[in-house]
Amino acid sequence: MHLIIAEKNIAANRIAQILSGKDKVSAKKEGGVNVYTFGDKISIGLRGHVVEVDFVEGYTNWRSEERPPRSLIDAETIKRPTEPAIVKLIQKIAKKANRVTIATDFDTEGELIGKEAYELVRAVNPKVPIDRARFSAITKEEINRAFSKPSDLDFDLAAAGEARQVVDLIWGASLTRFISLAAKRGGGNILSVGRVQSPTLAMIVDREREIESFIPEPYWEISLTTEKDGQSIVARHAEGRFTDKKAADAAYAGTKDPLVVTEVKEGKRVDRAPTPFDTTQFIVAAARIGYSAANAMRVAEELYMNGFISYPRTDNTIYPPSLNLDSILTTLEKTKFAQDVAWVRKNRRAKPTEGKKSSTDHPPIHPTGIATEEQLGENWKLYELVVRRFLATLSPDAEWATMRIGMDATGQNYIATGSRLTEPGWRTVYPYSEAKDSILPVVKKGEKLKIQDLNLEEKQTQPPPRYSQSKLIQVMEELGLGTKSTRHEVIQKLISRKYIEGNPLRPTLVGKAVTESLEAHASTITRPDMTQKLEQAMEAIKVRNTSRDGVVDDSRKMLHQVFDELEPNEAVIGQEIMGQTDEELTIGPCPVCGKDLRIRRKGGSQFIGCNGYPDCTCNISLPGTMWGSAVRTKKVCEVHNLFHVSLIAKGARPWDMGCPLCQLIEQQKEHYAKMPAMTEALQQKLLDAKIFSLYELSKFEPAVLTKKLGITKKQAETLIHEANDVLDLIRRRSECKKFMKQFVPPKRGRSHTKVMNGFTESGIDCIGDIASATIESLKKTGLSEEEAKTLKTEAISLVAKNQLKDMGIPAVSLKRYQEAGFLTPEDIASAHPAYLAFRTGISIETVGKHVTLIAQSLGKPDPVKISKKAFESGKIELTSLPGVGESTLEHLYRAGIFDKKSLISADPAKVAKSGGLSKDHLKKLQAAAVV
Ligand SMILES: [Zn+2]
Ligand SMILES: [Zn+2]
User: Taking the model in full, what pTM does it have?
Assistant: First the structure.
């Protein structure tokens, strides 16, 4: 049997479909993993890496004394399965295989993933031949070619990947730990540091500093407007930018009619067709149509896996001679682009355009299969981009006719330029960049024109722009930071670590703080040199100029040097970072005491508290961290001088909450409306006295409040009383909502809040209200019949439980009563103690005590008292009668019969009614008892 191992499940499936030819592929799941079988072949997909590099046991404790962060540098590493189900299945099948083909992606990462699979196979089957199929597109031709001429795994290429993995692990883990511990951060709040990540962040921080320190300088520009045959001409002063105001004013004043044409120059400009797509250029073009780098790559990978485009991770911008461009055109003829293809065939340039970079692994990104818009949905836009780019690279250059008119206005020179697209060329098939004509009318040298308008504009020089994602990727590439496969991931990571934000990108306070501290104490980490050196070493491993272990060792040495610089400064680094990030959590002066208000987090909850605590108890609650972490924004409330707060959650837009105090005050209005004694004037008095919430109000002593608000003691008492009532109501409602959520699932158009609003309208404010509500009224709030019934039953049970608890029944017993079906106090009080003891297994004397407690609470007479001895001897008396087993005993107890005496005195008619034992049966037992 021939086992084929692909990089991902979809690739495994497509490869099976292609190789099976006319045979049918049977798809099955084994242990949750998809398996594609055809003929004697089995195809399975990995999930990228199925093992990960990690440290050996014993390094998980961050605060270990014996193993400080530095110890991670020399810690031994091992490979651990991350996808055990896939690993297990591959090994199970590999045991029986007589050939294995590794068909992972064709690049360093793919080679490493292939090597991981190779090792898994070798571990269980030392002899089976293992070969490697390399392809740049998952198409019929490419796959058939790759499988008919397989080669061997490239262990050097894989070793380069391995070196990167190990080095990244060591750098990232040891430095992240060191910096996080120094800044006293842990859990989800760690400060990550990375080999590629940190220099990239430093570039963004650098740019921000340039922008911040930029001092704009004024300059002046002069332009004039004239006209010929109704067509206007706008001309700039030949001087361009005037940096001297006086000179500008003089030129402006000196510009006078007549305006004489001194020169007319016509020319031609060639507008070169774009070069083939490599990863970076693809990301840049995708950004222009609205894709983030990570998104563009995700879609590209999907298109590749499904055979629509070639492998999207490539540095190549020159089509290799082996690539059959004609057959790609033929393929595209069957798509929506048939007309464009026909145009390209007719106008095709002699040789396709070429970029500067050529590499042997993959061709530039190009279309490989036909697709329709319906088939691809949203992904169509990027498929179309790849197709059109491909067509453009085969199309002729575009041409523009240009015109330049020189003019003189009494000694002041002006220039107007115009251009017109004369040959659209490649622009016919690639409409992504605008081609705007600016056409000038025909004028002759010496011609006199009239100045219609003259303009002197003051402008300012601009700081350099922030990086967009695609620009950053281009610069990373120039600096040798990361690889075509990792650059967009690095940016994504910086965003998710909250080091950078926005589009274009800018650093957060944390990002700045960490970068500045690292720059000050161990700048190696933030400079691109070190990481460049490593990329070069990686290339050297590929061609066997150096070994994996050599590179890893060098990197360890470098890292030790870094720690030599860092360790003595741990305390300072911690202070620097904490000092700066503190700022991010400080939102402004406390309205009560003037000290700083800060965002504080505790477990899953967060709130704004005062630095003056415990003297000042000013406190504003915030939504839990599940809604996002609270951070301050740049806006400031004009009334309270506090920064606005926004919640930032992964993968969601920030939720701007505005000024937290304004929010709090707004919320309280709703609560105050429920207080009969509250007036607008009183609310204003509360604000003036810096009492911002209902909760604070409820905590006041009447005497203190009287003084603070200048009201009577009676008024103060009423206010405090009413505030407590409203708080109580809020508490009960929130309890009620919590309870309802347990039994009522949310549905489209029926959120829990909506149901709760319905409850409020129907006057249902607590769980007790649910217990006594009618099913009809519950249904009105949007519940189904069944949900209403369940909710009511559960509410009754809960209310009863609480009542019983209040009456003094211990929780353990309570559970037994409930399990035996005695839910309410009435259920228990109306049952005979003997029956209760029998059903619950609680001793008769304890039951007696419970029933007495309940009867007293309900105002009922005390129950009959039965001693343990009497109960036990009674049981012997009854069971010694003929035919009395457990079942009869239960009926007797239920009827209150627990010994011979009570049996003989029982009224058969009553018993038949209550206990279910027939009159005749009881009479027979009575007769037997008398004997
Ligand atoms: Zn305060
Ligand atoms: Zn405010």
Answer: 0.62
